[in-house]
Amino acid sequence: MTYSGFADEAGQDIETQIKATKDIGWSNIEARDIDGVNITDMSEEKFEEICGKLNDAKVNIHCFGSAVANSRKEVRNAEDVLYSREALKRAIPRMQILGTKIIRGMAFKQALDVIPDSPEIEKIIFDNISYMVKMCEDAGIIYLCENCSDYSALSYHHALRLVDKINSPAFKLIYDMGNTVGADNRIGNSPYAKQSAWEFYDNVKEFIYHVHIKDSFIDSESKAKIHTFPGEGSAEVKRIVADLIKRGYDGGFSIEPHMYNGSEGYVEYGRRFMNIIKEIKSK
Asked: What is the CA radius of gyration of the chain?
């Protein structure tokens, strides 16, 4: 098993990200933004600088946390589609330099102006994701799709349909249990029930390659989504992680606190997650 996290939530500069990672006792980062720029978008000079600092610290980038086809990218917008393809094209040689085998992507912004199973939208999503997955397959890289306000997050049915339609060994799922909290389960007609973190997991677990650890609950008065330390919210973190370990899961766990408490908060989040792992393994 590999432990990592979105270290830009500890701090924007690479020095802070490295220190926070090592303070938890880890040697891996899921790299997203560094100095406010995504790792797929920074200049070659900046990328080389980052590689040198990571190498000196003996810290690895386990996964590229890209913005490819993310929930702000509209599949019906040619510029968004082009950005995703070009970002992936830039990412692949960088991943090969670092020996990184997995990249986080999504399946484009949810098209909430049409029915959840719109054939027209599905076709262009499947075609575009297939195109990018083929790029990854040719390069020996795995495209991991996260359930984050994208097509795959509409419901577990949609995540499974995506896996079936892409049908490639270079396409797997990232499961973020925190993303299900408060999300509509867009199956059938409105009004929709809310998603269950366990139900979503239980249906897609066969295809999970990487896991994001995030927890939250919906405040009963304000209806706002409140992020918490792992195990303190409604995302059933402990139950899901325990089941993964019981099933022999050997992938990655990556913390994504969304609590924005700086480096100290990030380190505390990581340590609390490791305590959950210890608790599970001691039973």
From this structure: 18
Q: In this structure, what is the dihedral angle of CA atoms 114, 223, 32, 30, given to the nearest 10 degrees?
A: -110
Whole-angstrom distance, CA of residue 27 vs CA of residue 17: 11
Report d(CA 166, CA 171) in Å as an integer: 7
Q: 145 is written with which tokens?
A: 């799709």
pLDDT over 90, % of the chain: 96
Give the tokens for residue 214.
């995030």
Paired tokens of 263: 């480096």
Q: Residue 195: CB partners within 8 Å, gap ≥ 6?
A: 155, 180, 181, 183, 184, 185
Question: What confidence tens digit (pLDDT) does each residue in 16-58 have?
Answer: 999 999 999 999 999 999 999 999 999 999 999 999 999 999 9
Structure tokens at 132: 């990018």
Mean pLDDT of the chain: 97
Q: Please write down the long-range contacts of 157-165, taking CB distance under 8 Å and 24 or more positions apart.
A: 157/187, 158/116, 158/186, 159/200, 159/203, 159/204, 159/207, 160/203, 160/204, 160/207, 161/122, 162/107, 162/125, 162/126, 162/129, 163/204, 163/207, 165/122, 165/126, 165/130
Q: Are 150 and 69 in contact (CB under 8 A)?
A: yes
Buried-state track 142-181, b at ≥16 Cβ within 10 A, e below 16: bbbbbbbbbbbbbbbbbbbbbbebbebebbbbbbbbbbbb
Query: What is the β-pairing status of strands 102-105 and 33-34?
Result: unpaired
Triad 239, 192, 243: Cα angle to 5°: 10
Question: What number of H helices and E strands is found in the chain?
Answer: 8, 12
Cβ neighbours of residue 168 closer than 8 Å, sequence gap 6 or more: 130, 133, 134, 137
For the stretch 186-201, pLDDT in tens is 998 889 999 999 999 9
The pLDDT score that the predictor gives to residue 91 is 98
Could you give the 3-state DSSP secondary structure of residue 94?
A: helix
